[in-house]
Design a protein that fits this description.
Low-confidence stretches: 386-395
Number of helices: 16
Largest sheet: 4 strands, mixed
Strand content: 5-15%
Helix content: 55-70%
Shape: elongated
Structural class: mainly alpha
Distance between the termini: 66 Å
Length: about 400
Amino acid sequence: MRQILNIAFYEVLYIFRNRVLTLMVLVVPLFYAAVMGTAYVEGIFDSIPIGIVDLDHSQLSRELVDDFKNCPQFSVREGVENYRVLEREVREGRLKAGVVIPENFENDVINSRGTEVLVAYDASNLISAYNIRKNALQVINTLNARCAASYLAGKGMTEGEIKSTLDAVSYEYQVWYNPTLNYAVFIFPGIIMMVIHQIGMYSVALSVTREKNYNSWVQFVSSPVPSWKIYLGKSLPYFISNFFNYGLLLWFASEFINIKIKGSTYILVLLGFLYVATITSIGFFISVHSKNTLQVTRYMLLLSVPLFMISGFTWPKAYMSHWVSAAADAVPYTWMAEGIRLAAIKGLGLEYLRKTIKVLSLMAVVSVFLGAVFSKREKPKERIRFGFNGDSYFPKIEKV
């Protein structure tokens, strides 16, 4: 035990002596979460800028314009006089959508001839496009209901009869787990887990390559200390810091991003323990088998974007190709992102998380084993030659 603690103490000293590594281990995760949190803190789309082209200028068309103005999800901009201006404003990004009320709008509605209101919106951003379409439909349906009620009243129907006619088929909906449809609740927990994954893995992945760069790794491999003790001593400070950051970022999400963490504390701790143990061990494994810190950096850059995209957190795995879904199942982030959604957002218990915990436990055991049983026998170093652009060769110059 003393040997493990001595190695861990040595690693802690180095962390605090290296200013960049200290920031990476203790500050960067919270900094990343804070920066990304400010982007998602609003969480709900409102005041979407739109323009309205009223070609009818009737009482009913003005009512529709007022309905859009009174809808908190929209912010109606003035000065949009025709379709050409509307198209230009949307193309240049000053507006996200436009509504065109046709000529003879009121007459067609009164005479039951049917008419059509055009809603054109920028769908290059699917999230804002979805909100525009949903809220515009709600505004137009409200006007439809008023017009139908007015028509039925003209036919001599009483208020009660009108209500029963219009409400012949009604519906009630309940929004579970995210009642305000807050986008931050959907995306931010996954971002937190990715921050822990990348920063946590990268920091421990530098622990051995740093020694290799300074030619001090030989003191570890030539010592009588077994490899598993070196693994524990080297990994322990990073495991503690990563686990601390895991709890810190969940607290930050709850207190400042207004994401209600519902799950059992014990389940959240268990998930965090397994996840952090897995990524810390994988980081150590990468470090042992990498030649230098440049290689580690390349590995981390190659891993970050694909892992987030194929995890199923932003797009359901059921709608991915089978080989991509299978690859995602082999990644710890995939299971942790889903686990944190089930436990922290839905507040589900252990019976719903058994599979996730089993898979993360298996991954933790395998990764710990791979990290702990590395060979202490050093490969003979390649003969040092002149390098070009960081490579181990120098291009031949042909004589002319």
